[in-house]
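Exercise 7. Given the encoded structure of a 291-residue chain, write a plausible sequence.
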C-alpha cells in the first residue's frame, strides 16, 4: 500500500507540472498580445495633428483615382482628412471642390492636372499656381508635397525653379514615390546600389543633369523621403521605373545638405501603378508626414 501511495503521489506531481506549464503558455501569449496592442495604441497616440495641408500630385496620365484610394484609407484610419480637390487647367487657372477648414486634422489636397501628360516644366508651373492659390485664398504658410512618378519629377523641378517669395508657402516635407529622376536609365547592372547612393548614377540622363545643375536652389531646410518599388530579386524595378532611377535623387539631395531618407518596397504590390494602393506605402507616407 505504501508503494501504491507513493506512486500516486508521483503521478499527481507530474500532472501538476503539466498543468502549470499549460497555464503558463496562455499567460505568455496573452502578455505578448497585450504588448502588441499597447504598441499599436502608443503609435496611434503619437500621431501629430496640425493644419498644415499636404498636396498630392499624380503621375503621367493620372487623375482622380491615382491617389484617391490612398487618401480615403488615410482618412479612414483617422490619420488625415481630405478636404480639397484642385483641378489645374492648361492656362494655370484652378477649379476647386471643397475647402480647407484650417483645423488640425492633417488636411490633404488632391491636385489634378487637366493636361495629365504634359511636361515637367509645365507641371512645375502649375504646382506654383496651386501653392499661390492656397497662399492667397487661405493664407497658408506651410505645406507638404507628395508626388508619384511624373508628379515626383515635377515636384523636384518646382523645388529647383521656384524662387521663394511672398506668393509661395514654405515647403516642410516632400515625399517622392517612384520618380524617374534619371529618366529610365538602369545603372545597377554595372554599378552597385551603395555606389549609386554614395556617388550618384554612373550614367546621367539630360533630365538628371539639369537637376544636378540647379540642385543648389533647393531649400536645405526641407525633409525628404524617397519611396521606390522593387518587384523581386531579379527585377530591380517597379515594372516601369528602374530602382536606380528612383534612387538617383537621393545622393543629389544629400550633397546639398538636405535631410533625405529612402525606402524600398518589394513584392507584387510594388508595381509602379500599385504603389499608391499599397498599404505598406500608406504606412510610410503617414509616418513620414504626421508621426
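Solution.
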Amino acid at each position: 500500500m505504501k508503494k501504491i501511495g507513493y506512486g500516486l503521489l508521483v503521478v499527481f506531481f507530474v500532472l501538476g507540472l503539466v498543468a502549470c506549464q499549460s497555464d503558463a503558455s496562455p499567460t505568455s501569449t496573452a502578455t505578448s498580445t497585450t504588448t502588441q496592442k499597447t504598441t499599436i495604441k502608443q503609435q496611434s497616440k503619437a500621431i501629430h495633428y496640425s493644419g498644415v495641408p499636404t498636396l498630392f500630385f499624380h503621375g503621367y496620365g493620372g487623375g482622380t483615382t491615382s491617389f484617391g484610394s490612398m487618401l480615403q484609407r488615410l482618412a479612414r484610419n483617422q490619420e488625415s482628412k481630405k478636404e480639397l480637390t484642385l483641378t489645374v487647367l492648361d492656362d494655370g487657372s484652378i477649379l476647386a471642390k471643397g475647402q480647407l477648414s484650417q483645423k488640425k486634422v492633417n488636411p490633404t489636397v488632391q491636385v489634378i492636372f487637366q493636361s495629365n501628360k504634359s511636361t515637367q516644366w509645365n507641371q512645375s508651373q502649375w504646382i506654383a499656381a496651386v501653392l499661390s492659390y492656397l497662399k492667397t485664398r487661405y493664407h497658408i504658410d506651410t505645406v507638404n508635397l507628395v508626388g508619384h512618378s511624373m508628379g515626383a519629377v515635377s515636384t523636384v523641378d518646382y523645388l529647383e525653379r521656384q524662387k521663394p517669395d511672398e506668393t509661395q508657402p514654405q515647403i516642410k516635407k516632400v515625399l517622392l514615390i517612384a520618380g524617374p529622376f534619371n529618366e529610365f536609365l538602369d545603372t545597377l547592372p554595372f554599378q552597385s546600389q551603395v555606389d549609386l547612393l554614395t556617388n550618384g548614377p554612373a550614367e546621367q540622363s539630360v533630365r538628371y543633369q539639369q537637376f544636378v545643375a540647379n540642385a543648389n536652389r533647393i531649400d536645405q531646410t526641407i525633409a525628404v523621403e524617397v519611396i521606390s518599388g522593387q518587384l523581386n530579386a531579379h527585377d530591380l524595378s517597379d515594372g516601369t521605373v528602374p530602382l536606380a532611377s528612383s534612387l538617383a535623387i537621393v545622393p543629389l539631395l544629400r550633397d546639398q545638405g538636405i535631410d533625405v531618407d529612402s525606402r524600398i518596397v518589394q513584392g507584387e504590390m510594388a508595381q509602379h501603378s500599385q504603389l499608391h494602393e499599397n498599404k505598406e506605402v500608406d504606412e510610410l507616407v503617414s509616418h513620414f508626414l504626421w508621426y
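Remark. The first strand starts at residue 54 and ends at 57. Students should compare their own answers with the one above.
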